[in-house]
Write a structure and sequence with these properties.
Blueprint lengths: L1 H11 L7 E4 H10 L8 E5 L5 E4 L1 H18 L8 E8 L2 E8 L27 H11 L3 E6 L5 E8 L6
Parallel strand pairs: 2-4
Antiparallel strand pairs: 1-3, 4-5, 5-7, 6-7
């Protein structure tokens, strides 16, 4: 209960963003350092040619960590667990994807995945994806979630690229 209250407080009263030019590839490599001794392998694919966004490193680090943690949680009991963290160019945005080959998201709950208190985890508060969505939208981005046909879930985040001011 205490964790749920603290998570809600974070969701409702997030600090003001400190937006600066940020190289997402550097941030992703930094976050991956925390997962070096990870039980489940994480493949990093940095395919985007343009990875500079206007962002708050602390808040975007929280997004990445939360999505990777969700992927890890979905891999319990999977024979060959894998998480793929990737980037790609898409129009004027950077697309960041976290895909796992886990159990997938219950189809009837997929449309509600980003609602506060919606969880499929026995010990989850249901605020993780709601917080992630809020942070992404504060950065002018979008987020979607879908089940992968071969099994697992893919979360896609698009963030506007940093524009040089002439």
């Amino acid at each position: 209960m205490k964790n749920m209250v603290m998570d809600f407080a974070d969701y409702a009263r997030a600090p003001a963003l400190k937006l600066v030019m940020l190289d997402m590839h550097s941030l992703l490599r930094e976050v991956m350092g925390l997962y070096e001794a990870n039980v489940h392998p994480i493949t990093l694919r940095l395919d985007a040619r343009h990875a500079r966004v206007k962002g708050d490193a602390t808040r975007l680090r929280q997004v990445i960590h939360n999505l990777l943690q969700n992927g890890q949680d979905a891999l319990q009991g999977i024979d060959r667990p894998e998480i793929i963290l990737s980037t790609a160019d898409e129009a004027d945005t950077l697309k960041l994807r976290v895909q796992d080959n886990g159990s997938g998201f219950p189809e009837h709950l997929l449309a509600r995945a980003f609602e506060p208190y919606m969880t499929t985890k026995p010990k989850g508060t249901g605020l993780g994806l709601a917080i992630v969505k809020k942070i992404v939208e504060e950065h002018g981005g979008t987020i979607t979630i879908e089940n992968v046909v071969t099994g697992g879930t893919r979360v896609s985040v698009t963030l506007p690229l940093f524009e040089e001011v002439a």
